[in-house]
Design a protein that fits this description.
Elements: E1 3-8, E2 20-26, H1 27-36, E3 38-41, H2 42-45, E4 51-62, E5 67-72, E6 84-85, E7 87-88, H3 101-117, E8 129-135, H4 139-142, E9 144-152, E10 160-163, H5 164-168, H6 174-185, E11 189-192, E12 195-198
Parallel strand pairs: 4-9
Antiparallel strand pairs: 1-3, 1-4, 2-8, 2-11, 4-5, 4-7, 5-6, 5-10, 8-9, 11-12
Amino acid sequence: MEEVFCIPRKSIARDWPAPTILVEHTYVKLEHWFNKGKFLPRQDTESSEKWVQLIPYVVFARNSRKEFAFYYRSGTEQRLHGLVSIGYGGHINPIDDAGTVWELLWNCAEREIREELGQVLPRWVPGSLVPVIISGENAVSRAHVGVVLIYDDISWDNLRYAPVDALRSKNLESWSRAALEYAASGRNVVVSGDRWKLK
């Protein structure tokens, strides 16, 4: 049975947002979440009202963030098939466990990139503010919280890139739409359907 790292829903927000939002949180806030988190059976948390799964969401950019890597969703999460994503990553498992939230996130991100792309992910150093995606838009989003890790100037041969405007016209998953607008603008984002608002 797969176990995934979860944090209490109430520690993130009292009222879970209906649209998808991307806001910057401090490192201290993420450590607070981490200290309240624990590993739980994944099947028990997919529809839980008490727990949400923490996910590293790795974004690759190049050309001064005018282009981003993307792919078409497949894999184990059937509910996302057919959508386009700019985020790479996955669930945090006990093998990724560490003493801090950043080590935990990076261990998972490094493992996932190695498994999915066969590449070695450079060590990521967090800033004082970190982009976090929270959404109540659908069942998948409601069960997860994404921490966005943006890498600039990565041009691996097995990454497919597209300009920002071209990606905006694709059928992006809501997390990717929020991450794209944030990374391209450097500002917090609220996404509702195909519309977004910078804050």
